[in-house]
Every structure is written in structure tokens, then in C-alpha cells.
């Protein structure tokens, strides 16, 4: 008969089994010596709220904090194992030195004092600094000390330094900033309450954060469509309504090809573009000459648009005008100008971005690219959502409302691993503004105040 380690027969009835095993366990529930500390989990970047039970100054166990707005009590397996960060027997507690005469990789180390470790390092680093500081490659892990470690590296003189964030969280933050206007979940997330079509771009499958799980649950309950763009179908992708199996590193092209389709079918939110973006602002159009590509400004330095009401140039931040979204104009001194939107249309209507060409690069069929763009536009243009939120527009005025379409897009950390990073985030953001998505309030800098203000 199989037995447990405690010699308890496996076929014992569950109740008796629990009592028998419990009798064997050490006494650890000394509740009178326990305290609950409230803090946030640091096992990933979500910062879920946690309740940590501490006994005799030692972490006993960790629970989710039901009152925390991010995770509402949910704690993932990684968060649960946060206790190992403090208690793991494998945790380094002193410097280790490879035993003299042993091979690298053999794992033969001896513990040495901090003084000895510092002496060894000082000797080695002094030599590198005196000869060629760039020979020091310096990398630090996840911490809140990157300003200090970076300062140390630059004082040392090496260019070869990096930290965790450059490969992971900074990319995640950049993705969040471009697509949602928030770097991390504690500052905000996709508009789970209004979104009817949600596209998740390049989110790392190991980053199954509680806030996103809770958000996806909300979307699913409401019957919103969830599309995941990712080379692998694990994590969130596994529960997506549609998984776009993209070739790694080509997300930017997919987004720009969808931009191409929207422009081709004239499925763009003109009003949104005029109200919230710099699309109508005028740009100098003198290829190969001085000033080309710069915004056209008045003598006072104010960026100009063409006002359709008065048929003349006007300050872009004025509320009482009707800026032209498209068009070519001539400044009083003869300088040719065109709107930012006209430049954008010319660029992305190019065949380079046609679904047939993007399909070859991304490994996503041309029909799928076209269908996704049209499907999103169909959902977006069926209704608009008015959010009563406070924000500051481009002109520095306080606004109390935001009007957007019920489509959300979120790009995140995995973007660094299998796509074009910042460029991709910009391309996805371009899709958002053309559709006028509801997530845009913080995601870009609105250019004009509401006419009513
Ligand atoms: S998602 Fe999990 S690991 Fe990340 S902060 Fe929340 S509980 Fe911790």
C-alpha cells in the first residue's frame, strides 16, 4: 500500500486524513504573535495589494488585499510565492568566491567576507578604469536604485551599462504610455467598462497580471470581442476570441497595414482627430530645403492651422475655429504647407503598407488584416462614449469630458521581446487616434480645447 511521508495510509477518509496530518505539523499558528501588514506585491510590475501576515518578525503567509483597487483580493501563484523572496534557502546572503583551482561552472564556491569581496573588486576595477573603463560591462537587476547604479557606471566611465528596465519594465511602460497613457497598472488600465472590441498587442505570456485577468473577465461577461496579437498562444492569448499568430518583430507593420485599410476606406474619426490631435496642424513642405517637416508657426511662435470658418491661418489652440484636416496651403511668404494629416495619408496609403505586402512580412493573411481593420471600425463607429473625466488639454485648459469610441488597444512588455518596441507602440497609437478610441485621453496630447470652453 502507498503511504504518505508521515506513514498515513492514502485510502484514509479525507476528514481523518486532515486531522492526522495536522496533528503531525509543527505549531505555527501562534495568532497572538501575528500581525497583518498591508503593502504591495513586487513579484511583477502590477503591484497588487497584499496582506502579509508576520509572526515574530518573519513573513508567515501572503494574501490578496480585497480592498485594493488593482487586484481586489486576487493573488496569483507568483504573488503567493513572494514569501520565497524573503525565506528561500537558496537566497545569497554573503559573497561567494570560486574555489581556487576549480573549473568555471563546476559550482564550487566558498563564502567570503564583504571586506574581502570589496578588496578583490577594487583591485580589478581599478585596473579596468586605469586602462579602458569601457571594458566593464555593468548590468543591474530589478530594483529602485537604477538612478544610483547608473550614476556609478557613468562616474566609472563605462558606456556598457544597462539594467533590468531596459529589457523589461521600461518597454512595458512605454507600451502602456503610448496606448493607454499610463505606464503601469496602478495608474490605469484599458477602459474595461466601455470597450466592446479589445486588441492586446505583444503582451508577454509570463506576465499574467491580475488586473488584466480581471479586466478580461469583465469584457467576456459583456460579450466584447478580444483579439490577441502574439506569436505564441499561451497566457491571455489562450482565452482570446481570436488569436493572430504573428511573426515575431512585425507587429508594427500589422498595425500600419490596418491604418492603410482604414485610410483606404475613409474610416477615420475626423472630429476626434481635429479635437484631440495635431492632425490639422500645418507643416512646412519644402523637401530637401531648410525648414522642411517643421510645424508652421506665427511670428509669435504659435503653431498654425487653416480655419475653414474665416478662410485664413489661425492659432491651432483656439477653440472658436474649424481647422481643415486635409489640404495644401501657401504661407504669405510663399512657403508651401500641408496638414499633418495629409502627410500621414500620403505615407500610409503607399502600397508598401497594403495588406498583401504586410501579409508577407507578418505571416498574417491579407484578408485577416483587412477584416480586422474593418471589424474594429464597424464597432468603433457604431457609437461614441462620453467620459466624465478631468484632464488638461494641449492648450493647458482643464477639461471635464472626453468623447471616444468603444475600442481599446493595449501594448505591453512582450513588445520588447518580439516586436519593434517604441515604433510598434507608435503605430498602434496611430490606429487608436484614427478610430478615436476611448483609451486615448492620456495616450496622447490633445491639441485643442472643446469649442464650448
Ligand atoms: S500579478 Fe501576481 S506577481 Fe504580479 S503583482 Fe499581482 S500578485 Fe504579484
TrEMBL record:
Pfam families: Molybdop_Fe4S4, Molybdopterin
Metal-binding among keywords: yes
Residue ranges annotated for the 4Fe-4S Mo/W bis-MGD-type domain, each copy included: 34-90
Keyword set, alphabetical order: 4Fe-4S, Iron, Iron-sulfur, Metal-binding, Oxidoreductase
Location relative to the cell: Cell envelope
Cofactor: [4Fe-4S] cluster
Domain of life of the organism encoding this protein: Bacteria
Cross-referenced PROSITE patterns: 4FE4S_MOW_BIS_MGD (PS51669)
SMART domains in the cross-refs: Molybdop_Fe4S4
Family membership noted in the UniProt record: Belongs to the prokaryotic molybdopterin-containing oxidoreductase family.
Protein's recorded name: Molybdopterin-dependent oxidoreductase
